[in-house]
Amino acid sequence: MENKWLAYFKRVHALSQIGLNFTPSNYDKDRYEELLNLSLQMMEDLTGTPPEKINNLFIDETLYITPKTDVRAIVFKENKILLVKEIVDNCWCPPGGWADIGYSPAEVAVKEAREEAGLEVRPLRLLAVLDKSKHPHPPSPFHVYKIFILCELIGGELSGSTETLAADFFEEAHLPDLSLDRITHSQIKLMYEFLRNPTKEVVYD
Predict the structure, then answer these.
(1) What does the pLDDT look like over 29-46, one tens digit per residue?
(2) Which of 15, 29, 40, 156 might form a disulfide with 120, Cβ 3.0–4.6 angstroms?
(3) Is residue 62 part of a domain?
(4) Cα–Cα distance list, 78 to 58, 85, 146, 170, 171 (Å)
(5) Bridge partner residues of 168 (DSSP)
């Protein structure tokens, strides 16, 4: 579960940025600016990261703050799951990433499978919508919703990309080191539950 102080930081940081954007009062703006600085100090105390670096993460988040959306394509072949090896940490996860403006979640899943793994897929159904903070991921400054979409393999050849070193299919019992910021072992287990039980209902937090 998410560290409670990290959750406090996210909430205070979001409220301060919303207030700065919408309040017409200069007095209130001063108070929200103080709250913003306090939230950055909280994050520095928690992680050791300088406030200016933390603030840069949110430099474009100037309107009403909402959760970010991470979309993952879940592709099976011969009871093996598709994973890609991330350049950033040399670990593996299903192809995916931040949802792009102008794309539906299903379209993001198709695009990410093609760009990160070299494969053409067709979206079949929604499997899960998970709140990242409720799962055993490393701490994150963002509040993230994770969307998992089952896709059918229809073509292409396995390959890496500018963001991935390799792509391959793995058995549940022989998984590589997972990129835990992107996928957890319990989430992989959940995806295999859908493989074994195609009528399983969508899971959500």
Answers:
(1) 888 888 888 888 888 887
(2) 156
(3) no
(4) 42, 20, 25, 10, 9
(5) 83
